Each structure stands twice: as C-alpha cells, then as structure tokens.
Amino acid sequence: MSLGADLIRFTASETAAAISAGEVSAVEVAQAHLDRIAAVDGRVHAFLHVDTEGALEAAAAVDASRAAGERLSPLAGVPLALKDVLTQRGIPTTCGSRILEGWRPPYDSTVTARLKAAGVVILGKTNMDEFAMGSSTEHSAYGPTHNPWDLDRIPGGSGGGSAAALAAFEAPLAIGTDTGGSIRQPAAVTGTVGVKPTYGGVSRFGLVALASSLDQAGPCARTVLDTALLHATIAGHDPLDSTSADVPVPDVVAAALRADVRGMRIGVVKELSGEGYQAGVRQRFDESVAILTELGAEVVEVACPNFPYALAAYYLILPSEASSNLAKFDGVRFGLRVGEDDGSPSIEQVMGRTRAAGFGPEVIRRIMLGTYALSSGYYDAYYGQAQKVRTLIARDFAAAFEKVDVLISPTAPTTAFKLGEKLDDPVAMYLNDIATIPANLAGTPGMSLPVGLAPEDGLPVGLQIMAPAMADDRLYNVGAALEAALLRQWGHPILQEAPSL
C-alpha cells in the first residue's frame, strides 16, 4: 500500500491502519468514497439513500478521537454500505418497498448501533429486493441494481445493492441479510465475500423481519480478513433479541489470519455439485477442490440426501412466516396510507388499498402462498410437512459434520444472468438459491468467496463453505487459506478493477 494509491482501492484493514497511523484522515477516506458513489452509482444503482452529512460527521468524530490520543477500534473510519432492511435512526428505511417510503425509524438496529460504536462510517442504505424477497434485486420498488462486472446483468439478491457497492468500489465494507442466500448468492455473482453467520450469532433487533426463523444479518467485503473484522464487530449476544445466542463469539479474525487447512477434512456435498451447474462454475469449483487438497486438506464426498427437498420446504416456511410478519404493514401505524380521502372508507378498506398499492407482485405472491399454507385444513399438509423436512436437513448436516470439519459446494448454479431473463419465471428465479437454502433451514453458518472467472463469460464464480453452528471460525480459516492460494495463482485479487466502470 502506498499513500499515493487511490483510497477506494484500499482494503478495509489497510484503510483502518492508515487512519490509525495518521497517514490519511477518516474524512478524506469518506469523501473519496462519496465521490466514487457520485461518479458511478447512476449506472450501478447500489444505493437508495446516501447520507453525505452523517458520513462526514462520523468520519470527523473518528479523526477527533485519534487526535485526542484515543485508541481506535479495528475498523474505525472505514466506510460501509448498509442494507436498507436494517434500521438507522432518522435515516429512510424502505426495505425496497413503497409501503415504507419516507419512513425514518426512531431507533438504531443493534447491528447499526455496534457499527457506530466501532467508529465505522455508514455511507448510506443499499438497494434490495422488496422485503428481501428475490434473487436479483429486480423486485425493488425503486428499480434494479446493476452488476458492475456487466451492467446488463443482475448483482444477485436480495442484497444486490450491498454486493454491487463493494464490486463498484463504492465501499470497502457492507452489511447484508441472508434468509435463503441473500448474502452469499450476491457475493458469488459479484466476485465479493459474504458470510451468513450462525443463526443467533448476530442480533436481529432492528432487522425488519421477513422470516424470523431464517433471517440473519452478516458481513460482506472484498477480502476474507475484512469480512472477519466486520463479523467480529457486529456479532455477540443481544438481550434485545430473544433469538440471540448467549455463547462466546468464535474468534473469526484469528482464524482468518491462521489460514491453514492442513489436516482438515473437507466434504464436497454430493447433492450440490452434480447436474444443473454451469460448466464454468463447475470447472472453477473443481480447481478449488484440487487446491485445497494441495494445501493439505483431505477432501471427501459427503451425501446429504435430504438437501434436494430444501427448496420446496423453504418456499413454504418463508412465505408462511412472511404472511405473518408483513401483516403489520397496514397503513395504520407507519409508512404508506392510501384511500382514506375517498369518502368514508372503513379501516379494512384503507388497509386493503394501502397493501395493494404498497406491495409489489413478488411480495403479494408470497403472502398469498404463506396465508394459504397456514390456513385451516392445509397447515399440516404444507407448513407442517415442510418443518419435518427442515428437521431432516438439520440431521443431514449433523451427520455430515461427524465426518468432516466443513462442507463445500458452488454457491450459485450459474454466473450472473441478464436483467429480465428470469423475472417472469419465479421457479427459475428460486433455483438460484438451491445451494444456499439448506444452511438457513438448519441455522448453520456459510460463506461465499470468489474463486475465479467462468471461462465462457468472464464473470465471477463463488465457492460456498459451510460449518457447524457456532463454528463460524472454520469458514474464515478455510476461506482465507483458499483465497491466499488463489491470489498466488492469479497474481492479483479478482476485484482489482471494476470491469464495467
């Protein structure tokens, strides 16, 4: 790293070190990223709201703390893009939906509060599929986000805004949420790193719920170490979240620095590495398996026979929980309110008109599915059966982790597809999460990291690593070892340039 380098090209750890040493100010770093957003986000559309004033104030506070001789946290002064499903006091939070247009929360989510306490500079809120329902960020009420590798392609979803902000060098860090792959799949198709922590490992307080038993906030960055530093910043027990795990946080940073897989047993999931995967995705995955073997790991094939049923179970459990969670958006308490000036409508009429105007087609589709699955006479046949499948998938994980330390698979079956290509085919869209959904159903942690470009289209490919619950550190150990080996092979990081920008 040299002081003459473009500040937006620094990793988060390099940026933090430069600020701590007084080589650059946090305000200079924030301004460089705000300038980058102004220059390229008109084409990318990663952000829904940019908080210029708040970001510069936060950066100035970090510079003042340093000038006063205070010890800075590991990420103090580093800019971050925050997915618009997490509340930030006084800042618009829409969840990508018209029904929350203009809502400014009166409180911070726990993740937001911990970022602020660590001196992380929040640049703004990123675009997403409405209420996190989607795999392409095309379901945002505010228009799609574009993949910086090819602006005609999707950046993944639902957290495509956060992943695209990283890939476009608009921020070195981002926060996403993952209900069925919404951190990991965008990471895969944008060439970035994304982690879904163990369920309960990061507080959900202030995370606007989609499916409460599946949702998990997590860290996103351009390197494994940066992701680990962010993970350590936001993780830990929170009494405000009844599902928060009151257990010690694994030392993910030490694991990322260790980066040694010698003697580890790594399982390739048989059911997630066969037919249905793009040839270039499979090629890069196979090459990565060979590298892990060369690094001293024992790689074996592992059967998880119930994983093929995960997609069907997920698309009953998620809509069922969504139909309950989204009932609060009724035009009465906050957000959009439609139809009360039309004569003397009943409250039921106002609710109906508000929801019809405020929710997009994908949200309406899933609410209807979930309400049907929970209805009298169908609950046991649909929702109840899906929960039984969920138990079988958790048992598959438990059996696998008796044999191996981690499991691996491709993160997504294909590279980024064209905008609009699957928008009219919900089932084809849902299949993008076929490899990521099992970890959400079981509550186990997962990581996606870039392992090269597919030969046929030159677009990023992601590899997924899965570990037992509360063994998130294993993700970072394996991920960092593979990242280092690939870096030696490539001679440069995959994201040294933003290809379309």
UniProtKB/TrEMBL annotation:
This is glutaminyl-tRNA synthase (glutamine-hydrolyzing). Keywords: ATP-binding, Ligase, Nucleotide-binding, Protein biosynthesis. SUPFAM superfamilies: Amidase signature (AS) enzymes. One of its GO terms (molecular function) is glutaminyl-tRNA synthase (glutamine-hydrolyzing) activity. Belongs to the amidase family. GatA subfamily. It catalyses: L-glutamyl-tRNA(Gln) + L-glutamine + ATP + H2O = L-glutaminyl-tRNA(Gln) + L-glutamate + ADP + phosphate + H(+). Its EC number is 6.3.5.7. It comes from freshwater metagenome. Pfam families: Amidase (PF01425). It is an enzyme of class 6 (ligase). Gene3D superfamilies: Amidase signature (AS) domain. GO terms for cellular component: glutamyl-tRNA(Gln) amidotransferase complex; mitochondrion. NCBIfam families: gatA. The keyword Protein biosynthesis applies. GO terms for biological process: translation. InterPro entries: Amidase, Amidase_CS, Amidase_dom, AS_sf, GatA. Residues 28-475 form the Amidase domain.
